[in-house]
Structure formats: C-alpha cells, structure tokens
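Thread: quick sanity check before group meeting

JM: Hey all, I'm pulling together slides for Thursday and realized we never actually wrote out the predicted structure for the chain we discussed last week. Dropping the sequence here so it's in one place. If anyone has concerns about the input, flag it before I start.
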Amino acid sequence: MAPKEWKDLENLVSDLMGPSLTTIVIALTAAIFIPILLHFLIYRSTSSTALPSFLLVGPSGSGKTSLMTLFERGQVGATHTSQAPLAVEVSLPISTPAASSAYRSVNDPSLQIHKRFLLADTPGHGKLRYHALSSVVDPQNLRGILFVVDAATLSSGDGGSSNDGLREAAEYLHDILLQLQKRTTNIKSSRAVQETPVLVAANKLDLFTALPAVLVRAALESEIDSVRKSRAKGLLDSGVGMNDMENTNEQDWLGEYGDNTFQFSQLEENNIRVTVVGGNVTGTDGSHVEEWWKWIGSNL
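JM (edit): ok, ran it. Output follows.
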C-alpha cells in the first residue's frame, strides 16, 4: 500500500494535468507573467551594460569640438582648442534609426536605450594625439571612428604638390589606420577582430574652396601613399639593415605591401572599412550633418 504522501502527490499531479479550472488559471498566469518577467530582466541587463562609443579624431581646427557640441546639444556653441579627451553621452535623432533596433517595435521601451552612445573627442594637436592612438589600441566597446577634416584645406598646391593641411591630415589618418591594421594582424586568438568602420567626415563643404567628398578621398589616398614611401625611405636612410628593413616595413606598411598605389579598399581584408562623406557643422544655411548621423546609426 502506497504511503499517504505519494497519494497526495499523485492527486496533485492528476489535478494539474486534468482539464480543471485550477490548471487553466495556472497556465494562463504562467503564459502572461513569465514573458513579462523575462523582458524585464533582459531590459535591465542591457541597460546596465556600457554604452557603445565612437571616437572623434582629426587635426586641430577641423571642427571636431563643434561637431561634438552639435551632436550633444543640437546647436553649435563657442568652442576652444581641446587639451584633453572629453566624452559626452549622445542620442540619435528621432528620424535616424539604429541598426540594432531594426526589428524593434516603436513601442518598445528599450528602443531609445539602443540609440544612445558615447562620443569621445580627442585633442588634434600633434603632441596630444597619443590619446586617440591609445584609444584605438585598447578600445572600449568602440563602434567606429569619425575622422574630421577641413575639406577647404586639402587642395593641392601649384604643380600638384601637397600643402600643409593635406599633409597633416594624411599623416594623422595614416597613423590611425595603421594602429587599426596592427590590432588586426597582431591578434593571437583565432577569433576574428570585429570590423572597425572609419568615417572621414569632410567638413566645411559650404565653403567655396572646399573639395567635394570624392576628391577628398582621392587626395587623402594619394597623400597617404606619399607618407608610406617617405617613412620607408627614412628608415632606409637611418641605416637599418635590409633584413630588418623588410620585416619592419611589413609591420609598418599600411595596406598592401609593395609598389601598388594606396587605396582605402586595401584595408577591408583587415576588417577596416573607410567611408568619406561630406557635410558642414556650421554655415549660412545651418548645419548639414544628416549623412554623418546615418553613418553612426548604421553602426550602432
């Protein structure tokens, strides 16, 4: 004869499995409240994680700080030359969707959470650029890099020679891209490095002397090619041995190694995608940065 406890358990199981009112109420309660509880737990966990970040770099005077102020406040205010890194929390405009929210309902309470990010401005002065380079070497939830250039200072001089503005921008962009390339090639695990998109934001296109985006791209590619060659020649002139020279060149050579002319597309095999888009932070007709917002949203 079965113990009384077993009979009570058998009766309970029978009641739960049977088409009784109690069973229906329990099932409905579980069906309603379990998804709500899971959604609450997932929402709390995602909102407590670190915000994705974008790094803002570029030469001094290119308009980085003005762009950060515009993104943060919706208007441009008085700015000064950056002496130290500064990060602010920014949200995408209502009209700009985030790629991570493509399948979220407009009524989802976490929708706005996924449109927030940190924008980190870095000094553009040559002696302070180590801040930006260190952020590239050891990124913290980095989703992309905005390299701001003054498109009005990139035109070539007489005879096609580069000017100081073009040279400075190309050298700085070369160093940023080289650090990204080294981060990919020096990885020791079998796991692929996440793609790092780079936006070259050609600023001040409202000025008459500014180059359009397609010419900004061509000018930077050509000047970066000159930077590669001049630095390789500098190593050779310094007395580095030919064997050491070959090893060093491969490590510090941006893009395809050899005599091919540099192009941004050469970096895609290292998960570095460079896009050049024009716009202007200030101007008589206001700011035009919609395409830059779209680029951020596509990588958020």
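AS: nice. The mean pLDDT is 81. The two ends are 66 Å apart (CA to CA).
JM: adding both to the slides.
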